[in-house]
Amino acid sequence: MTTRAPGFPDGFLWGGATAANQVEGGFDEGGKGPSIQDVMARGLSGPPTIAPTPDNLKHVASDFYHRYVEDIALFAEMGFTVYRFSIAWSRIFPRGDEEQPNEEGLAFYDRVLDELEKHGIEPLVTISHYETPLHLAQTYDGWISRELIGFYERYARVLFERYGNRVRYWLTFNEINSLLHAPLMSGGILTPRERLTDQDLYQAMHHELVASAAATRIAREVTPQAEIGCMILAMPTYPLSPSPDDALAVMTADHTNLVFGDVHTRGRYPGYFLRTLRERGIELDITDEDRDILTNTVDFVSFSYYMSVCETADADKRIVGAGNIMGGVHNPTLEASEWGWQIDPVGLRIALNQFWDRWQKPLFVVENGIGARDELVETNGVLTVEDDYRISYLNDHLVQVGEAVADGVEVMGYTAWGCIDIVSASTAQMSKRYGLIYVDRNDDGTGTLDRYRKKSFGWYADVIRTNGASLTS
Questions:
Q1: What is the pLDDT of residues 81-126, one digit of tens each?
Q2: Fewer beta carbons under 10 A from the terminal one: N or C of the chain?
Q3: Which CATH superfamily is domain 13-465 in?
């Protein structure tokens, strides 16, 4: 192993990321209303319940709602210069369609920002991260309804007016392209996928894209110093064979994901997407006002990266990889995590170059990490986790970020997911741990909620302190 300086630029933002529904808890405190996550106690591994259930781990999650002071102090100890977190929509508008916001909810995030400012940590705020208010799902079937655009605009305006002088970086929707694959989690759509028509699904996509652009427009009116980004799930796709048909299958799969970034950065729908709509007989309700709103393009593109996939035109070879929310074919050349997510550090460099070449917008890696079953052990009288596997994963991916910077890609920063153990979005488990900080809580809800520094905690602190020079390749 050799130590190398991958050349991260001065001012590169180092930190971590979480989502409100996976870390906060306090699900019924401070005037908060229920969100779709309150009926998703099994994540994506089971159907939603009719009403919130007591076995939902997200109701307490990692208890950030009560322990944010301690947690932010730990982030500062690692040297974070940025912390990405989301605001729970139903903490601000408990039903989602009220005229006035919930002051207790707004005050909570004031206190979070106070702590971040105290430690010199830049906030990166996601406006909507998989937590549509449950009332909007039950009453309007989520983003299928055009009415949600107005509700979201009101919500976004409240956030910009309240926090605009304290928050520079904003993301409109988390992994917005996941809507086509996880319509309930991503779009608050309660209609089961097998009964959901393509017409309704793509109309919901359009409504979210218009709402995202509308939020960008409002931000530039209310807080012009802010920088607004979109957030997509990156999924580099390789042909399973050298066949031109497989290469064409890759192009088609890429288009499904890239259209969301194309609209956010170019302000209009690309021709290949319009062809898809024509061939599927879909006629979207797109108004002239919608077209005008979409021209409000983002300042930067952020994305999550966990895995790459393959694609093939040969139906007999389409073996879908385990755990792949976005589909895709298993890559026989790669190893995978316990949950079937294939590990491909080079894919991150490929994604960064692809996005930079395509959109010419600054890029921000806002999610990257590995879920694993960590074991708390005593080492030299201190309880910790010897997570060398996580260190290896993060090191190898960050080396590729450095390579992309050397390629000429403009990368703003990197936030490791999730920097503290949280409830998994896909499986609703605590045992699928991503954090650099161990939270003593188990899948059955037992545990003290005490925090412990993992081995990766000190490793990441060194990476940040040296601006990436301590990485090895």
A1: 999 999 999 999 999 999 999 999 999 999 999 999 999 999 999 9
A2: N
A3: Glycosidases (3.20.20.80)
